Amino acid sequence: MHAIPRPSAMVIAAGLAWGANCTAAEREHSEFDAVLAVPAQLASGGPGAADAAVRLHFTVPRALGRKVGWRLQLVDPAGNTVRQWRGAATTQRGASGARDGEGTVTLPCCAARRPQRQGAAPALPDGVYQLRLRAEAGSGRAREVIRQRWEVMVGHPAPLAMRQFAPLPTARAARSAAGLQPAAGELPYTVYYGNLHSQTSHSDGGGAIEHCSGAQAPQSAPFGPEDAYDYARRHGLDFLMTSEHNHMYDGSEGTDASADPARATGLYRSGLAAANAYSAAHPDFLAVYGLEWGVISGGGHLNILNSQELLGWERNAGGDLLADTATAKGDYGALYTLMRERGWLGQFNHPKQNQFRAGGKPLGYTEDGDAAMALCEVMNTNAFSVNTTETETRRSTYEETCQRLLEAGYHVAFATNQDNHCANWGMSAPNRTAILIPQASALSSTAFLEAIRARRVFATMDKQAQIILTANGRLMGERFSNSGPLTLEVRHASAGGKQVAALAIIEGEPGRRNSAAPLPGASASTTITPTPGEHFYYARITQDDGAVLWSAPVWVSQQPAPP
After folding, report:
1. For residue 182, is pLDDT > 70?
2. Is residue 226 part of a domain?
């Protein structure tokens, strides 16, 4: 392993000391974050090789002068660490003004500097490597650790051989009569691409691009749900969910003692009506209105995709509930039970491993939660981006936490969203959540929810690409019993002509922590015989442009071979 010196240049920015001049409610809506911005391709080293710039960005809520320790490793395809960097960033005032402390580190990666010099790192073989970031802030019980992993191309690795796959039709292609076209005999589904996480002026989103630098004061921004749906449809999305924070319907991040319950619940109903009206007027687009429930501090955010009720815990000075239905803040077990009773579906938003406590455990499993929670955000782009050209580079991945949820027993498919707070819904980056709806069905709320309930979903950083996983011919999202061999087939298609640079099939066992790991030697068609018991499998593809796609898992109950 070759160590590269700590970077000589460090760009740093940020906010106020933690807890100073901010309310408890404000702290509940912020969280420590670490983002790894990586170019699609890195030089392999050797004479004349040029380094690429890799940027680490840290956000510490309301913290000026806070130290964030970090370590970055470059890991080769065999799992060996071949480059390593360490350092610390000190937060100062950032783009979000006094709200948060920010620190940005820029360092060269990953060619050898002056390779002719004695002791310089050797050139790296071409291949798909991993950059692994570990960031730590706070101490004691307040200590938080974030890990980010991104696959990157070093040099020009040869593309992988993939099974020829005639892509599924897309709604976009059907509208334009161009692009990906289906072939006879392929899976009978149409792919719809959209964004399942965004805010408008009904909570803390909807900020005008020219003025938006962070979360807006609740209900202060100019743009509401109708504006969001129209923007997303005009920019090519097939669906958009505006997921408003459930505790902001009184117009406050805290609790407005003089708030009118009828106004709060009326605002929620107006959002439901706006989504229904927009979908009816535009049959080629699905407008979804729902809740982002919970707080960050000691909790976690989750979306409820189809609730007709405003849920909350806040009351005004007269004791009136500022919602339709009372839910205790932080009681995820009780929320899951309510969701299951009502038939609501949920998505874990930007999940961390210390969140979503149920049964006394972070990421705690309950049968009700398993029935209700269908999606896990595997990747998000910067929530406060004002980018409108799909070129935002700040993004975070939550694949490890999603794996922990799968290991806990949850049956979740992967989603990737943008959490837009500014008026650029779905356009900060090309990442999309894709759902598969039967070709015989029109786009509707019923078909949409049925697809999510069946976990016919994939997550992609490339809105023109597809990934499909089957297991013995069964489609991703399914649960089934198997005896004997299991053939896992991964299909990929790209309207932009992108090829597959790396493929991994992840296997794990529900009920067994840290069991998720890539199958050795996996290819586009891999046959194994699982050990008796419960298993899940999903596929991850890295394209030659650096974009990553995640299939939904399949869940297999492997039976012992007959005597």
Report:
1. no
2. yes
Is 171 part of a structural domain of the chain? Answer: no
* Residue 140 DSSP code: G
- Give the residue-averaged pLDDT of 227-254: 97
Local structure of residue 456 (DSSP, 8 states): -
Number of independent structural domains in the chain: 3
* pLDDT, position 123: 79
- Count the Cβ atoms, other than its own, within 10 Å of residue 73: 19
Report yes or no on 113 lying in a domain: yes
Whether 104 and 97 have beta carbons less than 8 Å apart is answered as no
Residue 455 CA, chain-centre distance (Å), reads 16
Helix (H) / strand (E) element for 446: namely helix 445-453
Look up residue 230 and give its amino acid. D
Closest to 67 (Cα-Cα) out of 76, 75, 58: 58
CA distances from 376 to 132, 414, 438, 466 (A): 21, 5, 23, 18
555: CATH = 2.60.40.10
Assess whether 31 and 78 both reside in one domain.
yes
Residues in a beta bridge with 358: 361
480: helix, coil or strand?
Answer: strand
- Provide the token pair at 329: 């803040």
Q: Does one domain contain both 346 and 482?
A: no
Cis previous bond, 422, omega within 30: no
**349 and 229 fall within a common domain:** yes
The predicted-structure confidence for 75-102, as pLDDT tens digits, reads as follows 998 889 998 999 999 888 765 544 677 8
Do 351 and 219 lie in a common domain? yes
Same domain, yes or no: 102 and 221: no
Q: Does one domain contain both 147 and 208?
A: no
Q: What angle do CA 138, 142, 146 make, to 5 degrees?
A: 65
Neighbours of 560 (CB within 10 A): 9
Domain holding 90: CATH number? 2.60.40.2550
Q: Using an 8 Å Cβ cutoff, are 510 and 530 in contact?
A: no
Q: Length of the chain in residues, anyone? A: 563
pLDDT in tens, 327-369: 999 999 999 999 999 999 999 999 999 999 999 999 999 999 9
367 in the same domain as 410 = yes
Q: How far apart are CA 356 and CA 36, in angstroms?
A: 24
State the residue range of the domain holding 220: 193-442
Amino acid (one-letter) located at 153: M
